[in-house]
TrEMBL record:
Pfam families: DUF402. SUPFAM superfamilies: FomD-like (SSF159234). This is DUF402 domain-containing protein. Residues 12-150 form the DUF402 domain. It comes from the Bacteria.
Length: 170
């Protein structure tokens, strides 16, 4: 399997986070990357520059979506963690770049509870970094789309991701 760098930046171009995954393939939902337990993640914020993933996961990057999803294996209490982003771009033969727009959605295994996180950070950066109207509209629409899909357990969030998670760990 081919290595692919997933690069997250902030709207002003600052690096935010980076992880290298294995390209598993593509389907009608987008590009699937595997990040097995122990994969190195580089952070450009906070007190630690690098960390390692604690559980196996697969990441879905839709071709045109304003979000990307990470599906986590047990025992993580989170089933799905989603970032609201600008649509992904292939910026090299083995590099996908997105702009992280702050809003995150998390679905927990227990009770399938869905939480929206960091809306305050989105509002702060919206003004501080000058998000144009089309970015604000895309982010809010992406967040609403995700919330509905996660709450109603629509694919690829129902069970479709499980085959990719299994492929990413074998």
């Amino acid at each position: 399997m081919d290595a692919v760098d997933l690069v997250l930046r902030k709207f002003d171009g600052r690096p935010h986070r980076q992880v290298t995954g294995r390209l598993l393939g593509e389907d009608e939902f987008g590009t699937w990357l595997s990040t097995p337990r122990g994969t190195v993640v580089t952070y450009h914020y906070g007190s630690r520059p690098t960390g390692r993933t604690r559980v196996d996961a697969v990441r879905l990057i839709p071709a045109d979506g304003w979000w990307m999803a990470m599906f986590l294996a047990e025992p993580d209490p989170r089933e799905v963690y989603c970032d609201v982003i600008t649509p992904a771009r292939w910026t090299g033969p083995a590099e996908i770049t997105v702009v992280d727009l702050d809003i995150d959605l998390v679905r927990y295994r227990k009770g399938k509870r869905v939480e929206i996180e960091d809306e305050d950070e989105f509002e702060e950066h919206r003004h501080e970094l000058g998000y144009p109207p089309e970015i604000v509209e895309g982010a809010l629409a992406g967040s609403a789309e995700l919330h509905e899909a996660l709450t109603l357990d629509r694919e690829p969030f129902a069970s479709h991701y499980r085959k990719w998670l299994l492929a990413g760990t074998s």
